């Protein structure tokens, strides 16, 4: 019996520009494209939960001022 987790495989159509960003992101985090997509989904979930709770999600300056708010439709 294998201890490998069951995985779902996904086909994904991306523009060449978005694919290049995906590859660049993978290099910058020292992972692969799947790692980037998994982390992006995790960040999206954080943003969704924040919205549901009436909170903001974004990028803060060192003094905690929200400089960029990421909004979810």
From TrEMBL:
It comes from the Bacteria. InterPro entries: Ribbon_hlx_hlx. GO terms for biological process: regulation of DNA-templated transcription. This is Uncharacterized protein.
């Amino acid at each position: 019996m294998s201890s490998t987790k069951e995985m779902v495989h996904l086909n994904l159509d991306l523009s060449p520009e978005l694919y290049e960003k995906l590859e660049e992101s993978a290099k910058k985090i020292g992972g692969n494209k799947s790692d980037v997509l998994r982390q992006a989904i995790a960040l999206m979930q954080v943003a969704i939960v924040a919205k549901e709770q009436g909170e903001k999600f974004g990028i803060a300056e060192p003094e905690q001022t929200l400089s960029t708010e990421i909004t979810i439709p």
